[in-house]
Design a protein that fits this description.
By secondary structure, the chain is α+β, with helices and mostly antiparallel strands. The chain has a single domain (5-404), classed as DD-peptidase/beta-lactamase superfamily (Beta-lactamase), CATH 3.40.710.10. 30% of the residues lie in helices and 13% in strands. It has helices at 13-24, 69-83, 110-114, 135-144, 161-174, 178-190, 235-246, 248-252, 267-271, 283-294, 307-313, 392-404, and strands spanning 5-8, 30-37, 40-48, 64-65, 194-196, 279-281, 298-299, 302-303, 331-332, 337-338, 356-360, 366-370, 375-381. It has an eight-stranded antiparallel beta sheet with strand order 1-3-2-13-12-11-10-9, with helices on both faces. Strands 4-6-5 form a three-stranded antiparallel beta sheet. Helix 1 runs antiparallel to helix 12 and helix 2 runs parallel beside helix 5.
Length: 405
């Protein structure tokens, strides 16, 4: 068994014990956790293996795909453009991307992209085939098609399309793609080992993602509820049943025909820029990133944005019911995932609470900041669990951390 390595400040030893148990018990194949508190990296631990065969130990510089955790990173890039006066999130998308204003999308606003209300949460003709590196193919398909509902009228989680939609806005406003913007404006100045679009040299440091076989619907809690008559169900479960039957989840999380679950380990996927789903990095990098945001957005004389701009970006903008995530009340700011009105003590949802802002990923990763507590937190892993245990490790770590503060 690969040992857990790294550093944990003695007064947070419970976090080390939880993390170590997640590895030694076999629950996690490989993982890392890092926490920055008041500008100090108090936890930076890693362990387990980079591959399913458990042949290659997880190292400090191991990169892993964090899926939708990437959305929070992309949200910070948007906030920087707002701070620079280049972008108004209340403007129409067509003001920046004229080709998008057609087929019922004419009144879509940039904020609709950021808080998952554009109703363009999937591809009507399936995800385009070919290389994921062909950016324009994906953005053109989304620009040409009709949305799945009136833009702005309802929330539906843009699992993959968020990346191309928000990413194209960034590209139109700034001229740089998201990966380059993040590298030049955030990663390089602060030495943050996180990337959207890997180079050939990065491949050797990548951990393989170990995903579940489809069908993901069957693994969801209460998935058999659609067979129960409405009169036997409590009101809240009737709504859940409706969204389950509507099938928006399958549209938003669609997979291309013939594509296996291992496509996320392909060179093409890793080298592409999908700012909603394929950011790769270390837990130390993400904890540092959110630590900087939570400590005034400035470090070593370099400022990302005014603190008030960041604060505006994590004010609640939409709280469901989410038509993709089965009517849940998941809450979004301007791209950031936030605490919902009701904290669920379950492990199929991440434990977002209080003033936390960030994002979780479908593989079980969670990264967030907390300006009130002055925290940057990140847990990342390479094995996707069944829905009921998806965020088990992250939630145990978060509960332990907040019990100490």
């Amino acid at each position: 068994m690969s040992d857990v390595k790294g550093y944990c400040r003695p007064d947070f030893i419970e976090i080390q014990n939880i993390f170590s148990d997640s590895i030694t018990s076999g629950h996690e194949t490989g993982a890392s956790v890092a926490i920055e508190y008041k500008g100090e990296m108090i936890v930076d631990l890693y362990g387990g293996y980079k591959d399913a065969a458990k042949n290659t130990p997880w190292e400090k510089d191991t990169l892993v795909n964090v899926f939708s955790v990437t959305k929070g990173v992309t949200a910070a890039c948007v906030a920087m453009l707002v701070d620079q006066g280049k972008l108004d999130v209340h403007s129409k998308v067509s003001d920046y991307w004229p080709e998008y204003g057609c087929n019922g999308k004419e009144n879509t606003k940039v904020i609709d992209f950021l808080c998952h209300r554009s109703n363009n949460f999937g591809f009507r003709d399936g995800i385009p085939m070919g290389s994921f590196q062909n950016w324009d193919v994906f953005t053109q398909a989304l620009a040409d098609q009709e949305p799945f509902g009136e833009p702005g009228s309802s929330q539906g989680y843009h699992a993959f399309t968020y990346g191309w939609l928000v990413g194209e806005i960034i590209k139109r406003v700034d001229g740089r793609d998201v990966g380059t913007f993040f590298k030049e404006e955030i990663s390089d100045p602060f030495n943050i080992n996180f990337k959207i679009g890997l180079s050939d040299e990065d491949m050797i440091n990548c951990a393989d993602m170990i995903l579940l076989e489809d069908d993901r619907i069957k693994g969801l809690p209460f998935s058999k509820i659609k067979y129960i008559p409405d009169f036997l169900l409590p009101k809240q479960f009737i709504n859940f049943k409706k969204f389950l039957i509507d099938g928006n989840f399958k549209i938003a999380f669609q997979r291309r025909e013939g594509e296996t679950k291992d496509y996320v380990n392909s060179t093409d996927w890793r080298k592409a820029q999908i700012p909603s789903a394929n950011g790769h990095g270390t837990s130390e990098a993400l904890a540092k990133f959110y630590g900087i945001l939570s400590m005034g957005c400035e470090r070593n004389g370099y400022s990302l944005m005014a603190p008030d701009t960041l604060k505006a970006s994590f004010q609640p903008q939409s709280s469901g019911p989410d038509s993709v995530l089965f009517g849940s009340d998941i809450t979004f700011g301007l791209g950031f995932e936030l605490a919902s009105k009701k904290l669920l003590k379950v492990d199929f949802a991440p434990r977002f609470m209080g003033s936390m802002f960030g994002h979780a990923g479908m593989g079980g990763a969670v990264a967030f900041g907390d300006v009130n507590k002055k925290i940057g937190f990140s847990f990342i892993c390479n094995e996707m669990h069944q829905s009921k245990d998806l965020y088990k490790t992250a939630n145990l770590l978060i509960d332990s951390l907040y019990s100490k503060l």
